[in-house]
Amino acid sequence: MSVSIRLPAALRPLADRKAVVEVSAATVAEALEALAARHAAVRAHLFAPDGSLRSFVNVYLGETDIRALQGPATRLKDGDELVLVPAIAGGAPAAEAALSPDELARYNRHVILPEVGVEGQKKLKNARILIVGAGGLGSPMALYLAAAGVGRIGIVDFDAVDASNLQRQVLYGTESVGRPKLEAAAQRLRGLNPFVEVVGHALRLDAGNALGVFAGYDVVVDGTDNFATRYLVNDACALLGKPNVYASIFRFEGQVSVFWADKGPCYRCLYPEPPPPGLVPSCAEGGVLGVLPGVVGALQAVEALKLVLGIGEPLIGTLLTYDALEASFRRLKLRKDPACALCGPHPSVTRLIDYEQFCAARRPKEEPMSVPEITVEELKARMEKGGVVVVDVREAHELEICRLQGTKHIPLGEVPQRYKELDPQAEILVHCRSGARSAKAVKFLQEVGYKKVSNVAGGILAWAERIDKSLTTY
Ligand SMILES: [Zn+2]
Hints:
The chain has 474 residues and is an alpha/beta fold. It is built from 19 helices and 18 strands.
């Protein structure tokens, strides 16, 4: 019978670097003897001096340990595959670490990489990676980590899938809209790879639960889009000594790094304090090219896999930036801040804090903006009555998606130059998409002396929801 014997990475250097050796044999014992006869150096690893099979080598025929069959006397048929699985140093049960023939077949393109091999694939199988946020970055990460065979993939998210997610969040399909992201993600990932365990954490991460969730994982990958969670993830990882694979994206640009306080800088070394709210727009406000989180999230997945496999040079102490329009990558050196409040020699942050408050504390004194407001129902009534000026402060391209009839258009950025176009005696009602930018415009107009000016709460989105459902929203 012609049978093949699949060798573990550790034995391949002794067998001309082959992953698979073909032999002719009628039983398992004959096959192993033929292997040892062809590659003499393998013999001492397989057989004790008395000729018996060493106990730390497990032999599988198909998916079955030969001890559950007839042991070395088990008969073979043409085309059978034997898999040699040595016990892992450190006492991990061989059964847990072992890969079935189905898994070996699935991960073939990994297993034939010398840098991964069966040993590396087992590391992936035994690895536990937590993805914080199942959005634009989390989508490609989750798909590739599951495809790669990462044994346990945790996902923290509490959102439902929205139609506006589908432009970039490739974990979900049109049929997922309205479903909890965790539910849709788990179904997709299990369909992709039934050998991985997907653990959903349906919660809003905070100082009270982060350490407990993170403790069950080896690597944390941050796919969030807000500063409070970013500092929380950074601090929790540093306190637990775990690596944090970081990324952020905006419009056409992304950045990736690995923050691992034990070996390099942390996020606080880079940014000791968050920017004031409103200064840095989010993707929801500024937009993002749909494939950008695909590129950046895939880079994060690469870094996470490198950390698990212990190969290559992880982005510790390096910020990799990507500019999609320029098609350029840059590597920037990051230094550990000797005065870092978290990972410096004299830390003042020694436990998790209230991150919402930490980030809100950066808020300028006058916020939250208290300006006169009207509802969209009142806006409709006033417009019908006439005698009011309605100002739309959105950007021109946003007006192409939807607009209200009879409004004056002054983008927020042009208000300081153009406000004199507005009659100070008139009643002025300002709107934007959701009400945030128009509040700033109202604040400005009040400061330059306009008395009868109000903000339209909820903006054109509220109008589309409650007054005119035929409007296209974005
Ligand atoms: Zn630091």
